[in-house]
Specification:
347 residues; alpha+beta; Jelly Rolls; 2 domains; eight-stranded antiparallel β-sheet; five-stranded antiparallel β-sheet; 5 helices; elongated; disordered N terminus; binds magnesium ion
Length: 347
């Protein structure tokens, strides 16, 4: 190995020949002539400091790391005293200085970061008392139906008029003649819980067997809006984007966790309402996540527009703001289904 020629007598550069042996090959390549000797030394020195820095970081020995960074400063200090004779060397010098500076910055950054740097204390989440079980309303929920009355609901056919469905024994049952009902309040983004039951003696088949629907946003009379289908899907074949848990004619449920008729079933829904620009164009589409009997059936599903019975859905001419939540009185001949325990949390 050639003798290392150092064009500086700076005392802090204490890289010894023994240390350079860590990188003998690189030293040989870089020090293969007298003009490049200083570069070879510097390169090996840089690698040594880099290796030391990584080692310190791994062991979290910041005092040692600081000493290493001090040595890097020494390199930066001493380097300009090297005898640079031509353009190539000038370019090399620039590269070395930049590399050393970057290494130094990285080292300082690593030293400056602490676990507390990524710990936040605001905003503070509101304290909410959960229900006794996951089906009971938490303390910040709006109770849309508690088994007593339909005070939160109105007729869709006759807005402002009472919802004409039947309430008895804590249960709400569809009155098909009265038509759809919707909430008096309007909602945008929300979390909703609802329980529904297909009559044990349900008859019919396909879409004509226990059909109802949860319209996540009602945007007009009749069935205008975005329907999460309610249907007897226990051994009842129909088109899959129309079975229980589907976003009607848009989103097939991921699985079919339907219980048999006569048993109570649950929907838990996270609804993100669509947003529209002032000119009526779509700003962001509606999204829904839904659990059916506690099982995920819609996972952040993006709706193409309001439910469309015939044709393709789209948001054209669908611009709307906060909207009521609607329950469907479907016109099939099967017995009406029932609901209970309906609550919603605005998000
Ligand atoms: Mg329906």
């Amino acid at each position: 190995m050639r003798t290392i020629a150092l064009h500086s007598s700076h005392a802090c550069l204490s890289v010894t020949i023994e240390k350079l042996l860590i990188f003998p090959v690189l030293t040989f390549v870089m020090c293969n002539d007298s003009r490049n000797c200083s570069y070879g030394w510097f390169s090996v020195g840089n690698l040594y400091f880099f290796q030391r820095t990584i080692s310190c970081l791994k062991r979290c020995q910041y005092d040692e790391l600081f000493k290493t960074i001090s040595s890097i400063w020494d390199v930066l200090f001493v380097f300009p005293t090297f005898d640079i004779e031509n353009q190539t060397k000038t370019m090399n010098k620039t590269v070395y200085v930049l590399a050393a500076t970057a290494l130094m910055a990285t080292s300082f950054n690593a030293m400056a970061q602490k676990p507390e740097d990524t710990e936040v204390y605001t905003p503070v989440p509101a304290v909410v008392t959960p229900g006794a079980n996951n089906q009971d309303a938490p303390s910040d929920a709006i109770i849309l139906f508690n088994g007593q009355n339909l005070g939160h609901w109105e007729s869709v056919n006759n807005p402002g008029q009472p919802a004409g469905w039947d309430v008895a024994n804590g249960i709400l049952t569809v009155n098909k003649k009265a038509g759809n009902i919707q909430t008096k309040d309007k909602f945008e983004d929300y979390q909703l819980h609802i329980e529904w039951r297909i009559p044990a003696d349900i008859e019919g088949e396909g879409q004509g067997r226990g059909n109802s629907g949860l319209f996540l946003a009602s945007i007009g009379s009749g069935d205008a809006g975005y329907e999460l289908q309610i249907l007897d899907s226990y051994k009842n074949k129909t088109y899959t984007n129309g079975q229980a848990g589907s976003i009607y004619k848009q989103g097939v449920p991921l699985v079919n966790p339907a219980r048999m008729p006569g048993e109570w079933q649950t929907y838990d829904v996270i609804w993100t309402a669509p947003r529209f620009n002032e000119d009526g164009s779509l700003k962001s589409p509606a999204k829904v996540t839904a659990l059916f009997n506690g099982v995920l059936v819609q996972n952040d599903f993006i709706l193409k527009g309001p439910t469309q019975y015939i044709g393709q859905p789209s948001y054209d001419k669908a611009a709307h703001g906060p909207s009521p939540i609607k329950l469907q009185a479907h016109g099939d001949a099967s017995k009406p289904i029932s609901f209970r325990n309906i609550w919603v949390r605005k998000l």
